[in-house]
Design brief:
Elements (H helix, E strand, L loop, with lengths): L9 H13 L1 H11 L1 H9 L6 H9 L2 H11 L3 H14 L24 H4 L1
Helix pairs in contact: 2-4, 3-4
């Protein structure tokens, strides 16, 4: 996905920027090590993906965040709604089925397909 196609939600963007700024002195060397080639290339040959984009990317791992939520939160409906809001916040509309949580008799969703959908 090109940088121009990414639409980060304002609240997510502010949170990410705050995290990146407040941790600059502690993690800037590590971030530079991870994205050294990309950062140098974006400085030498400017393009839409700047050094700041690479630095912010160092702090953002939505897949890891969602995995932690999935493993640590028991309320499956809340997790599903959070994932949908997160995807909508970055302008993604996945074609996934909507689980019918209310029709499930098991609160842990082990006997229905809700957990598989999420």
């Amino acid at each position: 996905m090109a940088a121009k196609d990414e639409h980060l939600a304002l609240s997510s963007g502010i949170g990410l920027a705050g995290l990146a700024v407040s941790n600059f002195w502690d993690y800037s060397s590590e971030a530079f090590s991870c994205f050294k080639d990309e950062i140098i290339e974006s400085i030498v040959k400017p393009n839409k993906m700047t050094a700041i984009h690479h630095y912010l990317y160092f702090f953002q791992d939505i897949e890891d965040e969602l995995d932690k939520i999935y493993k640590n939160v028991d309320e499956l409906e809340w997790i599903y709604n959070f994932m949908v809001r997160t995807l909508e916040g970055v302008n993604l509309q996945p074609n996934i089925p909507t689980p019918v949580f209310k029709s499930c008799k098991d609160e842990y969703h082990e006997e229905c397909n809700c957990r598989d959908i999420v």
